[in-house]
Amino acid sequence: MPQEYRLILKHADEPGYTPDIDCYMRNGGYETLKKALSFQTKDLPDGKKQTPQEQIRQEVTTSGLRGRGGAGFSCGLKWSLVDRKSGKPIYMICNADESEPGTFKDRQIIHKDPHQLIEGMIVACFGNDVHLAYIYIRGEMPEGARILNRALAEARAKNFLGKNILGKGYDLEIHIHRGAGAYICGEETGLIESLEGKRAYPRIKPPYFPAILGLYMCPTIVNNVETLAAVKHIVQMGGAEYAKLGTPNNTGTRIVSVSGHVKKPGYFEVEVGKATLGELIFDEKFGGGLRDGRKLKAIIPGGSSAKVFKAGEKFKVKRKGPDGQLTPVEVDLLDLPYDFDSLQQAGSMSGSGAIIVMDDSTDIVAALANLSEFYAHESCGQCTPCREGSLWMSKALHRLTNGHGRKQDADYLIRIAQGIQGRTICAFGEACSWPVLSFINKFKDEFEARGARDEAKHSSSAGAGPSGEMRIAASPQH
Amino acid sequence: MSFAVPPDMEKELDELVTHYPQKRSASLMFLHAIQERFGHVSQEAIEWTAKKLDLQPINVYELVTFYPMFRQVPLGKYHVKVCRTLSCALGGSAELREHFCQKLGLDAKEHGAQTTKDGKFTVEFVECLAGCGTAPVMMLNEEFHEAVTIKKADEMLARCK
Lengths: 478, 161
Hints:
The complex is a heterodimer. Chain A is α/β, with parallel strands linked by helices. Chain A folds into three domains: 21-244, Rossmann fold (3-Layer(aba) Sandwich); 253-359, Ubiquitin-like (UB roll), CATH 3.10.20.600; 364-474, de novo design (two linked rop proteins) (Up-down Bundle), CATH 1.20.1440.230. Chain A contains 17 helices and 15 strands. In chain A, the strands form five sheets. In chain A, strands 10-9-15-11-12 form a five-stranded mixed sheet, covered by helices on one side. Chain A has a four-stranded parallel sheet with strand order 5-4-3-6, sandwiched between helices. In chain A, strands 1-2 form a two-stranded antiparallel sheet. In chain A, 53% of the residues are buried. Chain B is of the alpha+beta class. In chain B, strand 4 (138-140) and strand 5 form a beta hairpin. The longest helix of chain B has 12 residues, at 27-38. Chain B is elongated, with a radius of gyration of 18 Å.
């Protein structure tokens, strides 16, 4: 049976472990930075030379690390795309704008082990010739910002930051930048605009790939908190060693946030792909199963933007057979390995690693209405399909959950969602339309029944008022 | 009332500007500092910030209207922000907000931030606060509170003097 594998969260919840630098250094902290800064230029077999910076980037590429923020893009590849010949400074930004509904993993790192993030970030900056970097932390985490500011001051005092770090001739400064409550700042180009002091309107790609035209039109790397923490371990243990954790193409560990209708919601660090969706929800070591007497209804597997799964679904997933050939195998929903590739093959994504569980007491129409209200509130308003469409969807769902639905609303919602996805500057268009498309495709009968019921009610008693606020699920036991 | 920034605060803000290659970048941090000190961002504060950062007032005003955390009017001394989004909703956040409203004499059916007549409390639904594993979560001013039961909520209110 799968176990937690705590690499990044190794110390986080140990009794007596504190977020200060002394505690971190007592546990081997900043040794990886010292190691990285003492890398020597290496002669390669083909006669070329490899600088210490290139060696760090090579280790990260070898590790197979994929971004932990949501897209699962290869970190090594992202770094390799940086324009290093422009003559402009290269910037690094740590994306600590954790706001994908269902996700609460970066908060644990920031609050409980901030120096691990900072060390990973310094190593990543050194490896990418960065001399000025920012941590963009969401506005609703004032305590996190204070903790990080304190940690940065401690690191500066020990010369892990600042001029001529540890006498190795490398300069780096890291500053905290606070967001102010806008979900769109988690999108990297929106984040960059916000860091420039503007509204967080995402930029169009091309030409504004951050690796080429990012912050102040300079090459910029934006990495998630957990990704940068992983970099620390990759350089410490070596990329090849890190790649042994997890499963092929889905290497390393990842912190999974489990919330909703489970007995033991929480965050669990596991080797990627070593635990199945079912184990993460039902196993005693993880989510601990559903509340007594309840059955599973639906799972959102990767943060609220991921397409929903319906209990009992089966998928065709490609598996490597004994002959090394990839053959499609039928897999039950709960047997899906929780990794990037399997969930993608099942038509959804592991996104930010956040699993939201809904049991059979959930009103699925109300659940989607809740999410759509979120997206309507958070659309930045730049692109018409998303600005208007997200609100139309939310209004239609509000109608359906307040006794004024129509049978055709299900099709109406699908038509709006299809008009948004693929027609916006950033991925928010997909983020707001995928929940609508997947909820309605998989639970269409419930949406249509709701609309039909309202229609019938209104034809029999014209002018009936709203049925009052809808409850989303059975009340939790407080 | 004219807007005056105390010298110690201005010194802090000047230091913030040095964090960025371009002054404009400091605007969000300025607005946070101003709101923390004065409770809201007034028209005068917007103009002051713009002047300080070599911007037009509209460049700052459009931030105040875009970012949900900034407000142009003072709110209650205690600001209750209950998370509204899915995991917290599954965990009973609607009931929690309703309880705050009832207890403080506010109308739970009203949308948006509501402040009590004595200006002591503001109750508001906000979007995901990244604490989904301990739903329902909320913030009381800058304090983050997890797994908030009705009992805990009452105790919290009792502590607000």
